[in-house]
Amino acid sequence: MLNTLRPLLHKTSYILASCLLAGGVLAQEQQQESAQSPAPLQAALQPLTLAVDTEQQMPKPFHATYKAKFSGFTIEATRELGTHPNGEQELIFSASTWLAKLRESSRFNWSRGQLIPSQYQYHREGLGRSRDAVLEFDWDKNKVVNNVQDKPWRMDIPEGALDKLSYQLQLRSDLLNGKQTLQYNIADGGRLKTYLFEMVGEELLETRLGKLATVKIKKVRATGKKRVTYIWMAKHWDYLLVKLQQTEEDGKTYAIDLLRAEVDGKTVTPRLGQRRELLPTQLPIIDAELNSLGQ
C-alpha cells in the first residue's frame, strides 16, 4: 500500500500544486532534503487585497478542494490563496491520508502584473520518510538558494522566474489580462525549466458543481513525447483550476477534479447564459458531451 499511496500523494502535490500543477509534468521528487521546518503563518489568512496593481487583474483570494484518483485510491487536497499581515501573499497546497501529510507553499508579491516569489517550501511527513526543501529568492542578486543540510544548490535566475507552485497564479493572471503567450521559467532542482501552454478552446464542462464554462489548455511538450496533459480552468471564476487529466506514455490516465470552491468569498456555481462568450482570441467552443476528455 505504501508503494501505491506514495506516487498518488506525490502526483497530487506536484500536479495540483505545481501545474497548474507542475505544468502537467509529473515532477520528480526533490533531490535534496532540508532540515528546516515550515514557517508558520504569522496569523490566520486574511482576505487578500490587491492594491499593488490597479491596472492589472490578478486572481482573487480563493479556497478550493480537489479529488484525485489513482490505482483505486482517492485523495482530497486543498489550495488556498491569502495574505499575511505584512501584505505578502501566500499560496498553500495541502493533502493528507492516514499515512502521510504533505504541504507546499509559495510566498510572493506582485509588481506591475508580474508575480515576484520570495520563498517556496515543500514538506512531507510519512510514507516511510520525511522530506523538506526551502527555496529562498534573492532578487537583489537575481539568485535562488535551496538550503539543504548545509549542501545548498544555488543558481542565477532571470527576471520573471517563478517557483513550481506560484507560476499557476501567474498563468491565471495572464489569462485574466488577455495575454496569448503562456510561457514560464521555473527554478527547480538547480536548473531553470521552461513550461509552455497553448489554449485549445472553450468547453462547457460537467463538474460536481454543475456545468462550468471553461478554457481548455494543453501542456506543450517536445515532439515525440507521448505524455498528454489537459487542464480546464473556470472562465468566469478567475480561471480557477477545475480539472486536470493526464495520459501517461503507457496509456494510463488519471484525473484531478474540483469538488468545491470559493472565490473572493463567493461559492463557485454555474453562470447560465454565458456559454457563447468567447475569449478575445475567438477560440472554438468544445461540447464536452461530444468530445472525449482524453483526446
3D structure, described in words:
The protein is globular, with a radius of gyration of 18 Å. A hairpin with a 2-residue loop joins strand 10 and strand 11. It is mainly beta. Helices cover 8% and strands 45% of the residues. It has a 16-stranded mixed β-sheet that branches. The chain has helices at 2-16, 167-176, and strands at 62-70, 73-83, 89-96, 100-111, 114-126, 131-138, 143-146, 153-156, 182-188, 191-207, 210-219, 228-234, 240-247, 253-263, 266-267, 285-287.
Keyword list:
295 residues, 2 helices, single chain, mainly beta, 45% strand
How are the SSEs placed, and which strands pair?
Elements: H1 2-16, E1 62-70, E2 73-83, E3 89-96, E4 100-111, E5 114-126, E6 131-138, E7 143-146, E8 153-156, H2 167-176, E9 182-188, E10 191-207, E11 210-219, E12 228-234, E13 240-247, E14 253-263, E15 266-267, E16 285-287
Parallel strand pairs: 10-16
Antiparallel strand pairs: 1-2, 1-14, 2-3, 3-4, 4-5, 5-6, 6-7, 7-8, 9-10, 10-11, 11-12, 12-13, 13-14, 14-15
Mean of pLDDT: 76
Give the class from helix and strand content and strand pairing. mainly beta
Instruction: List SSEs in N-to-C order.
Output: HEEEEEEEEHEEEEEEEE
Shape: globular
Strand percentage = over 45%
Biggest β-sheet, characterized?
A: 16 strands, mixed
> Unreliable segments (pLDDT under 50, ≥5 consecutive)?
1-54, 273-282, 284-295
Enumerate how many helices there are, as a single number: 2
Q: What's the count of strands?
A: 16
Round the Cα radius of gyration to an integer and report it. Answer: 18 Å
Helix share, percent: under 10%
Q: How far from one another are the termini? A: 31 Å
